[in-house]
Amino acid sequence: MSESTFARCPAAWTLWRAPLIWCGLLLALAFGMAALEPLFRAVEPGSRQVIYPHAEFLTLLGRHLLVVGVAALLAVVIGVGAAVLVTRPAGRDFLPLLAQAASMGQTFPPVAVLALAVPVLGFGTWPIIVALLLYGLLPIVRNTLAGLQGIDPSVLEAARGMGMGGVPQLLQVELPLAAPVILAGIRTSVTINIATAALGATVGASNLGAPIISGIVNGNTAYVLQGAALIGLLALTVDSAFERCQRLLGRHGR
Amino acid sequence: MIELIEVTKRFGSETAVDRLSLRVEKGELCALVGTSGCGKSTTLRMINRLIEHSEGEIHLEGRQVREFDEQTLRRRIGYVIQSTGLFPHWTVARNIGLVPRLLRWPAPRIRERVEELMALLGLPVDSFADKYPHQLSGGQAQRVGVARALAADPDILLMDEPFGALDPITRESLQAELRDLQSRLHKTIVFVTHDMDEALGLADRLVVMKAGRIVQQGSPLELLRDPADDFVASMLGGDDRGLKEAALTRVSERMLPLSPRLIARARVPRDATLHQALAVMFREHADRLTVVDEDDMPVGELSLRRLVGARRDE
After folding, report:
1. pLDDT digits (tens, 9 = 90+) for B211-235
2. Which residues belong to any copy of the ABC transporter domain (chain B) (predicted)?
């Protein structure tokens, strides 16, 4: 008993150790990429330039985060909002439609979305945000639906029977109980999109994908490695941070 | 006081409750009994409008339930369900304080009321207030369920098979506690169960339902002595119902004063039931028992003839 209580409330440092370590490595690499020049020189001995020169890595990281963040924020608002609406009595007719639409969203390759979005939105950051948004909606919608529908019906019956209104029931009972599952969906969505956002570099968005695309185009493996390493560390940082949040949220759920 | 007048509920073409009329007096515990699908739960849930009735009238203290705002109505009626429906992410104390919080009671008053209820239901505040539902046993969870239903001190309590999921021993102790609570609180209770023994033991008024209609209603003893038809008789346990009647009658109601005859060796407490007295006779191979009071002092005697209610005791 006391042991499991202890396991549920570990000290903040123990809990956040992994994400903090990944974050530290990420920032160290973004700041100090130049210090690793000898290493990259060994990888790419034929090239004159072995450290991606066109932008600061920190700037690229910031833009990358911004794109993923904006897309995730929109996807959460739209995805959770839509799933909540179709699980209300008034919107129940649209439930199958939403589930199908979200599934279709993910069968669409992001590259295809980019190709379609560019003529409409032009080059730059917006097409990639749209692509990430569409691509990231499915896990969020699916998990929000699963989370809301997975709540013990007797809990909802009790909430109604005690005279809770629809909005308090949603905010105080349904969303908190579905939160761990919803968060898992957001985690999948964001982690996938951190990798997918690199494609934005093909349509002119400047982010951590830029060194990769530039490396492929110019045949410079060092650039590719630099972009890939930063994206990998960013994904690990964010993913492990989400994992901790899930653990905190899931403490009392069953 | 709850009154249902010619209430009908249809789900599509199916009639779940058919022109049902029922009056539950203030302070009365009314048990709805019947096989699954007889409409007893539907009837209960129409009272707090979790299900809207199709026809007829349901009155609550003289007002139609339809005239109430749904949420106002439900906050005035305690509701206990079989699977408790406790919020798993809330502590015991927070769960119990749900309705007072919805009614915007001031925080100190809520805390006081929650502690009062926890004491009433045998849940020590120190060890239970901060527990989460998954840390409770089935019996403890249902105690919390009952406390939550009583939180805003409603006059009416609806209980939908509240003890149905508990093991027999826990169930019996909770039934005894409910009996005890009811003798102090005098709530108007509608209690749905398919456990006839539970209904017989708790109810002031027993309502036997079949296919959405009331087959018979009355006090447990009235039904046991005079079941309206074979269905009611079989619901009451067929030939066993004699024993169930014996279980509802106290020894003190049948005993005679001590006779000058030889005092019987086998003893039975005065407040035991006739069912228990019969068991003692069977076990002791005796047809006469000495009835004793709480201090084990003989106060009367009970013969087998007297126990079974034969006309003359000779």
Report:
1. 999 999 999 989 988 888 999 998 8
2. 2-236
Tokens 């980019």 belong to: A114
Asked whether the beta carbons of residue B73 and residue A157 sit closer than 8 angstroms, the reply is no
Please report where in the chains the tokens 């369900």 appear, as a residue: B81
Task: Flag if A163 and B72 touch (Cβ within 8 Å).
Answer: yes
How large is the ipTM? 0.82
Cβ of B84 and A158 within 8 Å? yes
- Closest-CA distance, B132 to chain A, in angstroms, reads 7
Q: pLDDT class for A11, splitting at 50, 70, 90? A: low
Which of helix, strand or coil describes residue A56?
A: coil
C-alpha to C-alpha distance for B295 and B220, rounded to whole angstroms: 31
Question: For residue B25, which of B163, B143, B190 has the smallest C-alpha distance?
Answer: B190
CA distance B244 to B278: 12
Q: What is the pLDDT of residues A152-166, one digit of tens each?
A: 999 999 999 999 988
Per-residue pLDDT, averaged over B109-136, amounts to 92
Question: Dihedral (C-alpha) B132, B137, B143, B144: value to the nearest 10 degrees?
Answer: 10
Find the CB nearest A163 among B89, B99, B158.
Answer: B99
Q: Where along chain B do its domains lie? A: 2-244, 249-308
Cβ partners under 8 Å of residue A157, min gap 6: B50, B81, B85
Angle formed at CA B10 by CA B8 and CA B16, multiple of 5 degrees: 75
Using beta carbons and an 8 Å cutoff, which residues of B are at the interface with A? 48, 50, 70-75, 79, 81-89, 98-99, 102, 132, 134, 148, 158
Domain A55-253: top CATH class: mainly alpha
Domain range list for chain A = 55-253
Read off the pTM: 0.82
Q: Are strands B2-11 and B156-160 parallel, antiparallel or unpaired?
A: unpaired
Of B29, B124, A252, B44, residue with least CA distance to B143: B124
* CA–CA distance, A226 with A229 (Å, rounded to integer): 5
- B114 vs A5: which has the higher pLDDT: B114
Closest Cα in chain B to A177: B89
A 10 A CB-CB count for B167 gives 11
- Six-digit token pair at A143? 């998990």
CATH architecture of B249-308: Roll (3.10)
Q: How many Å apart are CA B188 and CA B206, to the nearest integer?
A: 14
A-B CB pairs within 8 A amount to: 66
Give the burial class of B109: count Cβ atoms within 10 A of its Cβ; 0-12 exposed, 13-18 middle, 19 or more buried: exposed
Q: Which of B305, B199, B200, B193 is nearest to B243 (CA)?
A: B200
